[in-house]
Amino acid sequence: MKYKLTKVYLTKKGDIHPKTQKVAGYDKMSVQTEQTGADWIGMFDPPQEVRVWQVGNEVEFEIVEEGNFKNFKPVTEVQRLAKKVAEIEKSWEMKFAELKADLVLEVTGKFQTKKDFDKMTSTPHPLETKVDDTGAVNPDDIPF
Prior knowledge:
The protein is an alpha+beta fold. Helix content is about 25%, strand content about 30%.
């Protein structure tokens, strides 16, 4: 989901890393967004592309709740591309289903759209006899 950042803080921490329990310094990034209101969402050791986020940026990430804390995980380019591919596949499946529903199989075994089939079958053959409403045959329509 996309979020518009309202506050962004990147701080350097020391002591013990809360996730790995290693004694070393680490960075923590905390953000607030228009969509989440006053809730702070954090991330430990953010990657370089996240460190450049600024107030007013519209960014895409997932919120992961861990206990009482809300953390965020940025959406990777691979995840974005996978989502786009899934959308394209879905649209093609829908278009194929529509086309498949429109196709009819003629006696000759040729596929065509239902519209074309109806158009072809509704047009009388030029050698067919024309019958008026009374059921009488017009002598001019007889081919011999």
